Amino acid sequence: MMRQCLILAGICFLGLGLTEAARSEEGSAKRPNVLLIISDDHAWTDYGFMGHPQIKTPSIDKLASESLVFTRGYVPSSLCRPSLATMITGLYPHQHGITGNDPALPDPKVNPMAGRANPQFARYYETLMERIEKVPTLPRILGEAGYVSLQTGKWWEGSYRRGGFTEGMTHGDPRRGGRHGDEGLKIGREGLEPIFSFVRRAKGEGKPFFVWYAPMMPHSPHTPPQEILEKYLALNLTPPQARYYAMCEWFDATIGQLLSFLETEGLRENTIIVYLADNGWIQDPAQPNRFAPKSKRSPYDGGVRTPIIFSWPGRIKPQRDDSSLVSSIDIMPTLLHLCDIPCPQGLPGLNVLDREALSKRRAVFGEVYDHNVADVDHPTKSLECRWVIQDQWKLIVPADSAAAPELYQIIDDPHETVDLSKQHPELVKQLKELLDAWWPGDSR
């Protein structure tokens, strides 16, 4: 059924049509390396280059100064698993079918997180995980062009092999605690040696590489090094805030280590770096490791907005773009364009380096779901709301038809404090039509 839905969506997944030259060792040796850095539970405001008055992110700030930076970047969903699936497939959640973190189980007494190792419920988890094998993924496409690839950090879809990576840290076996990264979650928090070793081997073999660096940082548990934490405890912050802020700086330090490593290995000039966060996070000032309203799992900018950075020295001109709307659906087509590899037909994103195409974009869209997938055979049944942004306006439409839509002027009101839907009914109608034309919601 899911395959039928994907075909109906008009997306061609069969036969990427790569030429023999693209597959050859000679062709692959000339291709750029790719490093995709994904922050985990990180608000769009929480960087030095985005103007945060206290959080220090010198490494990302330096990267941003040398890169094409879209400050109005978005992810369609504010929950990590569907958001990560969008990055690696270039598809919206309703297209790739991975809409929540865990399946809801038929026995309500069993917690889905605890039930993953129970054979009785294996089908529910497998139904979600097998979807990553039915759509093109970035490492699979790059692999056909001669790339080797490494998965580290967050990864929900079972073993790294299911996503098309040639190597990885995540085994995904529920009997050994596999769920959202298992061994891969050591990356960053316990050093970067797996990445260093992989890159050195790829370099020695003369092969282009793709690295998925998605550490569980600054994600809870917020356990930063004491020397970083003490700097923030000295500020006018609550202890939970200080811990989250220190996590942001610790994560930034790992990026500095990666950048220094690439420079030392002589690889920086031929490595494309893409940076973004999987979803937002606003720290609850009173509760450790807890997010505040209008952040993670919400349709508000605190949950779905992120800066998106594209860097390739000498090839991508450094520029800060504060007006264009971009989305994580754009990562795959942009990277494939830069790597001179054909893109699967029908992907909804665009190459953000095509300024003419970007200028014609009417809007960006998203869809937010419950944490647990209510029905794995009908994954959009858990839909909570859809949203659309056009120019300075953002409309949020709940899946419950009895609930009222919300309208915000997000340039003047970036934290969405004043709902203007009653003042602008015609605008609500217009944006609702635009949203329905994109995707009308759960058709089941």
Verbal overview:
This protein has 444 residues and is of the alpha/beta class. The protein has one domain: 3-Layer(aba) Sandwich (Alkaline Phosphatase, subunit A). 30% of the residues lie in helices and 17% in strands. It has 15 helices and 15 strands. The protein has helices at residues 2-8, 20-23, 25-29, 58-65, 80-89, 93-96, 122-129, 138-144, 193-205, 226-233, 239-264, 301-304, 331-338, 355-359, 425-438; strands spanning 33-39, 68-74, 102-103, 148-153, 167-168, 209-214, 271-277, 305-311, 319-321, 326-327, 364-369, 372-373, 383-390, 393-398, 406-409. Strands 1, 2, 4, 5, 6, 7, 8, 9 and 10 form a 9-stranded mixed β-sheet that branches. A hairpin with a 2-residue loop joins strand 13 (383-390) and strand 14. It is globular. The model is unreliable at 1-26 (pLDDT under 50).
Query: What is the CATH T-level topology?
Result: Alkaline Phosphatase, subunit A
User: Main beta sheet: strand number and arrangement?
Assistant: 9 strands, mixed
Q: Compute the CA-based radius of gyration.
A: 21 Å
Counting DSSP H or I runs of 4 or more residues, the number of helices is 15
> Given this structure, which CATH class is correct?
Alpha Beta
Work out the number of β strands: 15
Provide the low-confidence segments as ranges: 1-26
Mean pLDDT: 93
Strand proportion, as a percent range, falls in: 15-25%
Q: Alpha-carbon distance between the termini?
A: 11 Å
Question: Based on CA inertia axes, which overall geometry fits?
Answer: globular
Order of helices and strands: HHHEHEHHEHHEEHEHHEHEEEHHEEEEEH
Binned, the helix content reads: 25-40%
Helix vs. strand class = alpha/beta
Number of domains: 1
Question: What is the CATH-assigned architecture?
Answer: 3-Layer(aba) Sandwich
CATH evolutionary superfamily: Alkaline Phosphatase, subunit A
